[in-house]
Write a structure and sequence with these properties.
Length: about 160
């Protein structure tokens, strides 16, 4: 037993440290607990999330994991679609999304939005997120502060693991 521990303990410890570093800083699998992204992501789907945002340029339509600007929920992780980048003007009216005055086609939505919002301008170093299940999703259109600071981003979805099998 002593020989086994002496041989394998360093390798096991290194494996644990490496896996924790990868999970903390590189990538992580996450489960989605709500229906705010239906039909794109179903309840209990597992996502593969890339966390090296310093190497990634976020763009409209990306699905991102972040800590929300919601009192009491700051430690939770939300999964939503990136709608507004810094400087964008966002408005929702007549069931449609407008970004910088232009109506945006959103083929991933099952129903038009039944609310109005904005217009608001996304501040520097902040982002604006909405769920794909817009009329159910607890997202930026309902938050007192509708913008997520850059330092609250966790990562960008690379794949829905459920779609791979």
């Amino acid at each position: 037993m002593k020989k086994f521990l002496k041989q394998w303990l360093p390798s096991i410890a290194l494996g644990i440290v490496l896996s924790l570093c990868i999970r903390s800083y590189v990538a992580e699998a996450m489960r989605v607990p709500t229906d705010s992204m239906v039909p794109t992501i179903e309840v209990n789907d597992r996502l593969f999330v890339e966390k090296m945002l310093w190497m990634t340029k976020l763009k409209h339509g990306d699905i991102v994991v972040f800590h929300p600007p919601v009192p009491g929920e700051e430690q939770k992780r939300y999964v939503k679609r990136l709608i507004g980048l810094p400087g964008d003007i966002i408005e929702i009216k007549d069931g449609a999304l407008y970004r910088n005055g232009e109506q945006i086609a959103e083929p991933y939505l099952q129903k038009p939005m039944d609310y109005t919002f904005g217009p608001v301008t996304v501040p520097e170093e902040h982002y604006f997120f909405l769920g794909d299940n817009r009329n159910v999703s607890y997202d930026a259109h309902l938050w007192a502060t509708p913008f997520v600071a850059k330092d609250q981003l966790v990562g960008k979805m690379l794949a829905n693991v459920n779609d791979m099998f």
